[in-house]
Write the structure tokens for this entry.
Amino acid sequence: MSSWNSQSMEVLYQTLGWIAFFSWSFSFYPQVLLNYRRKSVVGLNFDFLVLNVTKHSSYLIYNAGLFFSSTIQRQYREKYGSDEIIPVAANDVCFSVHAVLLTVVTLFQVIIYERGTQRVSRICIFITSFVWITAAVCLIVAWPSDSWLWLVSVFNTIQLIITAIKYTPQAFMNYQRKSTVGWSIGNILLDLTGGVLNFGQMTVQSVDQGSYVNFYGNIGKTLLSLEVVFFDLLFILQHYVLYPVKVGEKNPVIQEEIISPLIKTSESTSTSEV
């Protein structure tokens, strides 16, 4: 059985992992709270949400399978070496469960709050349908031969691909609107922190083991961290540099979503006084 060479490195590994868990987990709440305060999801891209459910569900299947299944763990060590530590930690599983739940909550907000003319695109529906049909076919193929490591690796690949795709609609929507109103920057800052710490956690394990297997044996987690950092930096650039919100700026999106409701409220108050 594999073990840590340094107890201090193991403690650091666990610490970074759980800080990353809290950063990534809390990153969902600013958007949920923003939607609640505005009673609106205008500005939040629905394709991003649908793809996010697929992404986190796939990642949950991978993390839970590799963390809980002794069969999958045995197949992993047969492939990468009996002395290798399983590259999925408890914080990875907890994050995935929490992510699926909070994404579902955000989807529920889409149903009950003002959403304007926004809707899920046909391209998103096609991608999502194709992904789950492919996953079902892979399950049928893996079942007779007990190729469970291969199957969860398929789900890991799915979440990696969807991560690369899911941010694009929101980034493009921000570009079209020349605004990030309705898209929480708090979500992005916490997400970036989680991505950096997640990569740091993997680095600690590799240093302790003197092996890079942790990176390519769980290539999905490695590339996930890099993708998250890239897109979060892009959103930070959009929010603070390209499309900053300025007081008194004549932005049609701000006019519609922030100023107009205040004017309507003022008019209603004046009418009631008369």
In short: The mean pLDDT is 84.
